[in-house]
Specification:
Length: 476
């Protein structure tokens, strides 16, 4: 189909996947790839079986174990989450019965779904991609339209390879300026959420662009798109470029030979056209940012490491004031007090936000030759078994262990299971983590979680308090 009007990256992908317009703003959308994990996939497959239906396109469907799986070494098919073993058993049995490609416990490709999907080339530029998890938008960093769905939509896609979806509005977030020393993609996205709120992107497909994005490696781009959902976005996207192509080329499921060349030719046409019109554009000057850390119970309750806890709620609504008051109470902080220097009991590096090889390398550079402070429980869970293997080949695991971190197997770990009674930090502790959500009880009952970059987490673990990595760098 010829299009006379300039189009955005998102509009190009959407237009290519509309099977039918259903009215009332709804469309039938073809799904290129569908990924299952044990929490969402087992329910969708169970319902499919109850209806005596088959998986329409097994070659477009993939599955892994990640959410409730134990991450301690020698874990086996184990979980500490009540009922978790049922999810693992159901998922395994039904995936095998439907002959879906399955990266199970002993598969060297197992890992967090949002890490392994792009790592393996399962998700590619221009695709539609769904998974039963809100952080599916992570993989939009390769230039795909990726979003989380419920079990009913997942079941529908399994049976028909289409879903019913409403078209979101379009937003471009221009990230400009040179980043200061110690400032990372995690700090950029936290600063954006802090400025515009957890609903700043509500109703939008959010495209990240600008010089900061252009200079980022894929690990940073995944971090940005991962937290698009914490910004309220339907999804996050980044236009594919040479960095994207270099990352994807080695993927097991990426096109090969002539098919690769043809795919790249198509992918080069995906970036938004000049003069494409977005429903909303925002610009963030990143040159003035410091490393960020959350102080409250939502990602928007955040500031620079050297900023004090604000004396008023960012939102002046009754809901905003109530959230601020609850955050002060739960987090054990007071208005105008410094966050920098708060003693911590735990540190966690992992999750689909910051558990890739570049993240572990950056943290290891801080930890090398240093020790975790006494009384701090420090844990690292690589995002995939492939990441773990690559890190061990570089000796990164030895640096973490020598510093006093637990070096775990791949999985969602504390980010997903702390609130469900699985792996968790001790009751009421204060921890700093590279994850994406600092909700109440997210990492254990009454645990106060502060979100930050892997570098800030590593520096804080060493000093036993929320710390600026530049303190350690200055000390040598």
């Amino acid at each position: 189909m010829q299009h006379s009007m300039p189009r955005t990256l998102f509009e190009k992908i959407w237009d290519d996947h509309v099977v039918d317009e259903l009215g009332n703003g709804l469309c039938l959308i073809h799904i290129d790839r569908h990924f299952l994990h044990e929490l969402s996939g087992s329910a969708a497959l169970m319902n499919l079986d109850k209806a005596a239906r088959k998986v329409r396109n097994r070659e477009l469907t993939f599955a892994t174990l990640d959410h409730v799986l134990e991450t301690t070494p020698g874990r086996g098919m184990a979980t500490r989450i009540p009922g978790g073993n049922d999810f693992l058993r159901e998922m395994t049995a039904r995936v095998v019965a439907h002959e879906i490609r399955f990266f199970d416990l002993d598969d060297p490709r197992q890992g967090i779904v949002h890490v392994i999907a792009p790592e393996l080339g399962v998700v590619l530029p221009g695709m539609t991609f769904i998974c039963g998890d809100s952080h599916t938008c992570t993989v939009g960093a390769v230039g795909a339209f990726a979003w989380g769905v419920g079990s009913s939509d997942s079941e529908h896609a399994l049976a028909t390879q289409v879903v019913i979806a409403s078209r979101p509005k379009t937003m471009r977030v221009n990230l400009e300026g040179a980043l200061r020393d110690g400032v990372t993609a995690k700090d950029v996205i936290l600063a954006l959420i802090g400025r515009y709120g957890v609903d700043g992107g509500s109703g939008y497909a959010v495209e990240f662009a600008g010089s900061v994005v252009d200079d980022m490696q894929m690990s940073g781009r995944f971090t940005l798109c991962n937290m698009a959902v914490e910004f309220g976005g339907r999804t996050g996207l980044i236009a594919p470029d040479e960095t994207t192509f270099a990352y994807l080329k080695a993927g097991e499921f990426s096109p090969k030979g002539g098919a690769w060349d043809a795919a790249v030719s198509y992918w080069r046409m995906l970036p938004s056209d000049p003069n494409a019109v977005y429903d909303l554009e925002l610009t963030l000057d990143c040159s003035t940012l410091d490393p960020q850390v959350t102080w409250g119970i939502t990602p928007e309750q955040v500031g620079g490491l050297r900023d004090p806890v604000p004396v008023h709620a960012r939102r002046t609504t009754s809901v905003g004031r109530a959230s601020y008051a609850r955050a002060i109470e739960y987090s054990g902080v007071t208005p105008n007090m410094p966050v920098l220097g708060l003693p911590i009991d735990g540190a966690f590096i992992g999750s689909c936000t910051n558990s890739r090889l570049d993240d572990l390398r950056a943290a290891a550079a801080i930890l090398k030759g240093r020790k975790v402070a006494s009384g701090v429980k420090a844990i690292c869970t690589p995002g995939s078994t492939s990441v773990k293997r690559a890190a061990e080949a570089e000796g990164i695991d030895l640096i973490f262990v020598a510093a006093g971190f637990e070096w775990r197997e791949s999985g969602c770990s504390l980010c997903a299971s702390g609130s469900a009674g699985g792996e968790s930090f001790a009751f009421g502790g204060r921890v700093i983590a590279s994850t994406n959500r600092n909700f109440e009880d997210r990492m254990g009952t009454s645990v106060k979680a502060h979100l930050a970059s892997p570098q800030t987490v590593a520096a804080s673990a060493v000093l036993g308090r929320i710390a600026d990595v530049r303190e350690l760098e200055a000390a040598g």
